[in-house]
């Protein structure tokens, strides 16, 4: 008997059965009492965590586990469910009403905590085990970075963070990750919305930026990029590039990068409240303009290769944007070469960068999951198949 036998699909089947039978009948069937402390939140509903994984073990092996067969605490059931990407909660420390985004006035940047229980009680990061708090609908409130994944890379004001899921009971990556997993979906939503995420660092011997012991709240970070890429273990992983929100960030830009003037971004003020715990921040945007990009825009006469729009600025002058298919820098490290660049209008550029537009191997343009014409190419500018394939996988 081992909880490592249980995978995400087994838990989902147990959840389906729970929904069909109802809580009382489900608990009675498998011989469990109603959970008083530990539960799983999934798609807006609450499930008794120990009973759920006991039933899931039956789906996986043919033998359901009874309550007496295993412990249902944080280190056992909690650890397994969290690793499978489920939102495991301690009801004593994490009331639903505690949801919150942005800064918490009682816990300024630099606040330290002895352990995860203290972090959870403060609501800076509400989960006891999960590294990501949030949902695909609302985005991520917070993450904990402690070097738990081999692909993590802590660079101080820039954090390359690995999503969750696909690991066995020993912490080894044995499956591909997906943006469908709740925490990964939450961070991807934060990338799309631009809302900042609280970052808590824990001990990580690989990082000079991590505390030697305990946990430390290190401020707000913005998700600059999100993609599915090959990990060191040979499986596809969700990776997120997170950059600290700061008025005076120490950032080094490569040749050909130009920093636009900073502009304040004002958060939405909730109705009936004066924006507690929030403050204006400065956003910075990098615009890359290389000789390759300028050449591509010129030969296409600033006409979008996807929608054929040409934006006129008067006197015959046009405006377009050069889009690197495998993006430069960040998570992707793509090359600045002709086959890796498209000439796009501003609208298609944003949608392409965010994965709302992908291009098939046959050059079919797929917008929001539906065919939308074909990519326009020139004999003097052939787009590389390998770059389009990379883009499709990154946004699958």
Question: Can you put this structure into words, describing what you see?
Answer:
- The chain has 396 residues and is of the alpha+beta class.
- Helix content is 23%, strand content 26%.
- The chain has helices spanning 8-21, 23-30, 49-61, 74-83, 116-122, 182-193, 291-299, 346-353, 385-394; strands spanning 38-42, 45-48, 87-90, 112-113, 132-135, 139-145, 153-154, 158-162, 197-201, 215-230, 236-244, 257-259, 263-265, 281-283, 286-288, 311-314, 317-319, 321-324, 341-344, 357-359, 364-367, 370-374.
- The strands form 7 sheets. Strands 4, 5, 6, 7, 8, 9, 10 and 11 form an 8-stranded mixed beta sheet that branches. Strands 2-1-3 form a 3-stranded antiparallel beta sheet. The chain has a 3-stranded antiparallel beta sheet with strand order 20-21-22.
- The protein is globular, with a radius of gyration of 23 Å.
- Mean pLDDT is 82; it is low at 94-98 and 247-288.
Concise structural overview:
This protein has 396 residues and is α+β, with helices and mostly antiparallel strands. Helix content is 23%, strand content 26%. Strands 4, 5, 6, 7, 8, 9, 10 and 11 form an 8-stranded mixed sheet that branches. A 3-stranded antiparallel sheet has the order 2-1-3.
